[in-house]
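for the recovery benchmark. tokens below, seq after
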């Protein structure tokens, strides 16, 4: 799947059993906004100046980091807890 827009371009691929997503951005501000939104869902990210690669683990991103540079970033997986333990009574 590929998404093309003026601010962001996204693509996906698999290598063996590992899935990767790549997003490139028109501006560093667009990259920062995308990362901020994406982090709430969890994940592992390799972040460059105007690009991000997502993968299942930091180890999966090691070869890309060695070749492209960038900074590893991760966020805990999102868990849905809205309404857990609530009875709807005040």
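predicted aa per position
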């Amino acid at each position: 799947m590929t998404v093309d827009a003026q601010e962001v371009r996204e693509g996906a691929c698999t290598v063996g059993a590992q899935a990767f997503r790549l997003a490139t951005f028109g501006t560093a501000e667009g990259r920062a906004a995308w990362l901020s939104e994406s982090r709430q869902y969890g994940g592992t990210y390799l972040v460059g100046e105007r690009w991000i690669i997502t993968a299942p683990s930091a180890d999966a991103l090691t070869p890309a980091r060695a070749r492209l540079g960038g900074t590893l970033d991760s966020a805990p997986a999102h868990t849905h807890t809205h309404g857990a333990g609530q009875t709807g009574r005040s």
